[in-house]
Structures are given as structure tokens and as C-alpha cells.
């Protein structure tokens, strides 16, 4: 994961929560199809939607550097927030010697990142930060995400999370009341592959029973998400670039016009 992307996620940085309403696209049909053939609508433009987690579906409820600094004061952390950000960039630019960054609960990797970012190696500090981000109230969904997921599911679109993440992810999705929306949740620390590896995308597609040519992936990383998905013939929309809101994702999938 490149530093620019890492800077937006905890225990990676992640972008501030959700941008505003759906963008208009002149000349593009926006009328959503009916959920069933009985309603006279056409089938969705895609049979499956794969979503990245951190930085796409999951956004931090409070700026990460601010959180690290605030918690760190009790442990003697005096590094300014700008310095914490720079430390994260260095940590994520450094090569990782093992196959997976996120092995099991991810603690070995995160200890290195937190120490580099804050210059603090206190175990109690690390645990407090780690546990903070293990609970759903440290996160939020982008505006309209839950409604969009429900509408897509009702329209017959298969949904999957495909994420480079540690074992906390399933609980976070449950805490945010969206885990039951997904037909598959594929986590790198569980399956042994990290994006952009084709295997992790193929596992998700197999679990939802949709071919790559009939699905779309949405994520925020040019290499891990876009290049990885495109390598197996899976279309990818970059979050914050190709699509900026979940209502826009919905409208591009549930449309009477397949033109993008």
C-alpha cells in the first residue's frame, strides 16, 4: 500500500468520512431499475459489487493523528500531529519482509507502524490505540452506504467485502450493522493473500458466484485495488476519484443505461 493511501487509514490513515451528495453526470440516465422483472425494469448493470473496507466502506470517526496524539499524551507522546503523519508515511514506505502485513490480529505490523509514527514503544499505549480501533464507534460509514447496500441487495446484486485487513474487520462490520448485508467477507489475514494478488479477488467472486466480467470493485488504492482488479478482468472504480458517494455507486449499477 503506497504511503498516500496508508495515510488515510488507522493504524493506517484514512480519508475523512464521506463526501457529500451524488454528483450529477449530464447526459447519463439516472433512473434506477425496479428490483424485479415484474416491475418492468432491466437487470442491474453489474451482478456483483466488491468493496474495499478501510478508506472506502469504513471511515474513521475522528482524525487518526488527532486520536493518536490525544491518547498518547498520557504516555508521554509529544510529537505533533504533522510529525505523526510523516512517521506513518515512512512506516508504510518501508519494505515488509513477510508475505502478509496483516497476519492474524495484525499486532506485529501495527507495533512497528505506531512506534515509527509516534516515537513511543510503550506496550500499554499501543494496546490502547489498537483496542480503540477494534470497536465500531471509532469508525463510521460514508453517507448513504447502508441504504445503498440494502437497495443493491434488494435488486439482486451480490455484495462482498475484499480487504487487506486484520481479524478485527468482521467485528467492526458487525458493530456498524452491515455485516449481514454481505454475501461474502474476504479478509487478507484469513485467506493468506493481500490485494493486488488475483487470488483474493477470485476467492470473493467464487463465494458470490459472479464472473469477473459481470462485477465491479470499488476501492481507494491505485495499485492494490485498481491494478489488482483489472489484472483479472474486473472493473474497478476508485473511491474519491471515479466515484465519490455511495449513491453514485448505486446509480451506476442500477441504471437503465449501461453507458458509464
UniProtKB/TrEMBL annotation:
Leader sequence residues: none
InterPro entries for the chain: HAD-like_sf, HAD-SF_hydro_IA, HAD-SF_hydro_IA_REG-2-like, HAD-SF_hydro_IA_REG-2-like_cap, HAD_sf
A family per Pfam: Hydrolase
Superkingdom to which the source organism belongs: Eukaryota
NCBIfam families: DREG-2 (TIGR02252), HAD-SF-IA-v1 (TIGR01549)
PANTHER family per UniProt: F14L17.7 PROTEIN (PTHR46649:SF5), PTHR46649
Protein name stated in the entry: Haloacid dehalogenase-like hydrolase domain-containing protein 3
